[in-house]
Amino acid sequence: NAGVMQNPRHLVRRRGQEARLRCSPMKGHSHVYWYRQLPEEGLKFMVYLQKENIIDESGMPKERFSAEFPKEGPSILRIQQVVRGDSAAYFCASSRGLAGVPYNEQFFGPGTRLTVL
Amino acid sequence: TQLLEQSPQFLSIQEGENLTVYCNSSSVFSSLQWYRQEPGEGPVLLVTVVTGGEVKKLKRLTFQFGDARKDSSLHITAAQTGDTGLYLCAFTSGTYKYIFGTGTRLKVLA
After folding, report:
1. How distant, in Å, are the alpha carbons of A9, A11, B36, B56, B86 from that of B82?
2. A46 has pLDDT over 60
3. In chain A, positions 3-32, which contact chain B (CB-CB < 8 Å)?
4. Chain B residues with CB inside 8 Å of A108's CB?
5. A93 vs B contacts (CB less than 8 Å)
6. Would you call A52 an interface residue with chain B, using a CB distance cutoff of 8 Å?
7. What is the band of B31 on the pLDDT scale with cuts at 50, 70, 90?
8. Cα B107 from Cα B14, distance rounded (Å)
9. By C-alpha distance, which of B96, B95, B30 is closest to A32?
10. Most CB within 10 Å of its CB: which of A18, A115, B31, B84?
11. How many Å apart are CA B106 and CA A56, to the nearest integer?
């Protein structure tokens, strides 16, 4: 299966702990995006990364949240000192490079459902 | 702020009926995507529309992009229970950032 992979699918954390969410993009894709979905809502953009670079993190809270996409390995979304309000589904999407393409198609992974107790 | 409104928010119909859902924006977009999301899963891309007035068909699904590229519709003919899900539209205004609508929750009853 060459689709976007995310793990874990479900993550339970107590308040104050750290959450690490992983995303492996589709084969051939070098651009990764993270979105958050609250119950009964649409997806909200958080951050856009290319290998070793954060391109746009305008949708990510300034504190406790960070993201990386290292040269080797998956992209990581890290949430420190989680609070109950962080409970949500976090989706990763990937796409090919944007140069020379008329539009940007993003393909989504199955998501990680984070529950903060 | 660019907004994307979808209507209706909820729709429950009998198998075999036709339906249309709508996606409207306050801005012109360069492309628009329709996704379907099932419970516990990620959104699955159905179609991308780019040209104003464009119509695309995917089996029983017909997607239309408004002439002014500010709205789109999805029409499903003879709905089946397998069509049940959350239908999301998303657009970009020339950049990489997707703006998603809040979605239409469709339930098709047998």
Report:
1. 23, 29, 11, 20, 12
2. yes
3. 4, 6, 31
4. 35, 42-45
5. 98
6. no
7. confident
8. 8
9. B96
10. B31
11. 33
A51-105 pLDDT per residue, tens: 889 999 999 999 999 999 999 999 999 999 999 999 999 999 999 877 666 677 8
Nearest to B43 among A41, A104, A108 (CB): A108
With CB atoms and an 8 Å threshold, state whether A91 touches B43.
yes
DSSP per-residue string spanning B50-103:
-STT-EEEETTEEEEE-TTSSEEEEEESS--GGG-EEEEEEEESSSS--EE---
A45 vs B contacts (CB less than 8 Å) = 97-99
The Cα of B62 is separated from the nearest Cα of chain A by a number of Å equal to 19
Could you tell me which residues come within 8 angstroms of residue A84 by beta carbon, excluding any fewer than 6 positions away? A15, A116, A117
Shortest alpha-carbon distance between residue B77 and chain A (Å): 25
Average pLDDT, rounded, for chain A: 92
Distance CA B66, CA B72 (A): 6
Q: How far apart are CA B8 and CA B107, in angstroms?
A: 12
Q: How many CA atoms lie within 13 A of A48 on its CB side?
A: 16
**How do residues B81-100 score in pLDDT, each as one tens digit?**
999 999 999 987 666 778 89
CB atoms B48 and A103 under 8 Å: yes
